[in-house]
Amino acid sequence: MHDNQRQIRNLFKRLSIPAYRKITQYLFLGTILLIGIEFTVFVHQLEKGVVPSIQRPPGIEAFLPISSLISLKYWLTTGIFNRVHPSGLVILLMILLTALLLKRGFCSWVCPFGLLTEYLNRIHEIAFKKKYPLSRWLDYPLRSLKYLLLAFFLWAILIKMDRAALDYFIYSPYNMVADIKMLYFFEHISRFAVGVLVTLLILSILIRNFWCRYLCPYGALLGLLSSLSLFKIYRNQATCTNCQKCTRSCPVDIKVHQTSVVRSDECHACLNCISACPEKETVFLSVSKKIGRIRPWIYAVLIGVIFLGSSIAGRATGHWKNTISTHEYLFHVRHLNLPIYQHNEGRVPGYDKAAWLTMLNSLKASGEERGD
Ligand code: SF4
Ligand code: SF4
Q1: pLDDT tens, residue order, the chain (372 aa)
Q2: Both 176 and 44 in a single domain?
Q3: Please, which of 133, 150, 161, 204 could form a disulfide with 165 given CB 3.0 to 4.6 Å?
Q4: Range of the domain at 365
Q5: Which of 118, 252, 283 gets mutated to test ligand 1 (max ligand atoms within 8 A of its CB)?
Q6: Which of ligand 1's atoms lies nearest the C-alpha of 262?
Q7: Whose CA is nearest to atom 4 of ligand 1?
Q8: Same domain, 212 and 99
Q9: Does 190 map to a domain?
Q10: 8-state DSSP, 130
Q11: Residue 124 and residue 192 in one domain
Q12: 108: CA distance to ligand 1 center in Å?
């Protein structure tokens, strides 16, 4: 083996679990920032009425979870993988897959809000000199809030929307520009929205994991699915010395030292408990107590492989880039203030779908004729 290879191998061996996690989190954060910058430039060029010099990054659809959930039901009930926001559906599927295989690894290895929460928790610990958990009588009812939010979305989409309603929403003018609307929401943020964000920030410093533990409906969905996860955290009672370092390291206050397998829906699979345990092979990630143990660095690789592999598979099968042409986008941005692009009280305004799609097809064809 060459010296360089040996050095790289030693470096990987020396890296701690938190270091692997931080590297993974920052790699995903960097990717998300890059996508955000590309998309902003793309939209600003459209506003000037010119054909953008860069392509719209499909990954922006990761920020359209409601549209993606609607796409998921549409796909499951009709077999049609819609071409309006296809990568949003691919990303949703891969996030659900991580929960079924690797618990809530998405929350603590990928999600940028998970990373932000960790820094807000640090501020909490510095300000209050220790971790202050919320008392149980308040913690349990508050934890149900995120499930209530999730139940509302599931009811509104999976139960209330029939095939016609799904179809009507997916091809609506509003859904086609939902990503642009989201950008404008942050670019022209209202005082009320700033107030809500600042309140959430303050509450997240006062109460650890406030957003993730009590309000995030995505976390609730992943928490439910993670109870079926293939891999789980196990503790070997025979070699445990009951030092409780695992429990003290847990950011979501799970009593790891009192359990033989962590089943809590709050476990984010951060693997801190594995890292903190001083006894060899006592806390581990595995398929079962006896077989299928994996090393934490393999966990990091699996997370990366699922995300990278799914986006490569999406590209290879034509389910990544949407079919909205640049000329259609130029038209949308020019007319964005029209009532048909608005979304009022959870409903898209009425539109004639056949006439709308015919008009968009002719726009696309005229752009192709000009070779744009
Ligand atoms: S139980 Fe372990 S892996 Fe799960 S959140 Fe707590 S420290 Fe992280
Ligand atoms: S850190 Fe390891 S040895 Fe200590 S209580 Fe937890 S499992 Fe047992």
Answers
A1: 567 767 766 666 667 888 889 999 999 999 999 999 999 999 999 999 988 999 999 999 999 999 999 999 999 999 999 999 999 999 999 999 999 999 999 999 999 999 999 999 999 999 988 887 788 889 999 999 999 999 999 999 999 999 999 999 999 999 999 999 999 999 999 999 999 999 999 999 999 999 999 999 999 999 999 999 999 999 999 999 999 999 999 999 999 999 999 999 999 999 999 999 999 889 999 998 888 788 888 898 899 899 899 999 999 999 999 999 998 999 999 999 998 888 876 678 888 889 999 988 888 887 666 655
A2: yes
A3: 161
A4: 3-226+303-369
A5: 252
A6: 1
A7: 267
A8: yes
A9: yes
A10: S
A11: yes
A12: 10
Which residue shows structure tokens 């929960």?
A: 99
Same domain, residue pair 71 and 164: yes
User: Do 139 and 72 belong to one domain?
Assistant: yes
The Å distance, Cα 246 to ligand 1 centre, comes to: 8
| Separation of CA 199 and ligand 1 centre (Å) | 27
| Burial of 247 per CB tally in 10 Å (0-12, 13-18, 19+) | middle
Tokens of 316: 């290879």
Residue nearest to atom 8 of ligand 1 (CA): 270
Domain tally for the chain?
Answer: 2
Query: Is any atom of ligand 1 closer than 6 Å to the C-beta of 250?
Result: yes
The neighbour count for residue 44, using CB atoms within 10 Å, is 13
- Give the global pTM: 0.90
Mutate to test the pocket of ligand 2, among 235, 236, 240, 272 (most ligand atoms within 8 A of CB): 240
Look at phi and psi of residue 232 and say left if phi exceeds 0, alpha if psi is from -120 to 50, else beta: beta
The token duo for 168 is: 């009507």
Neighbours of 365 (CB within 10 A): 12
Token couple for 135? 């008392």
Residue 255: CATH number of its domain: 3.30.70.20
Task: Kindly list the strands in the beta sheet with 283-286, ordered across the sheet, starting from the edge strand earlier in the chain.
Answer: 261-262, 232-235, 283-286
CA of 266 to the centre of ligand 1 (A): 8
Which two three-digit tokens encode residue 142?
């508050």
Name the H helices within the chain. 3-14, 17-47, 65-78, 86-102, 105, 112-128, 136-154, 163-170, 173-176, 178-187, 191-206, 210, 217-226, 245-249, 272-276, 296-316, 326-334, 353-369
User: How far, in Å, is the centroid of ligand 1 from the Cα of 146?
Assistant: 20
- Claim to verify: residue 142 and residue 252 sit in the same structural domain: no
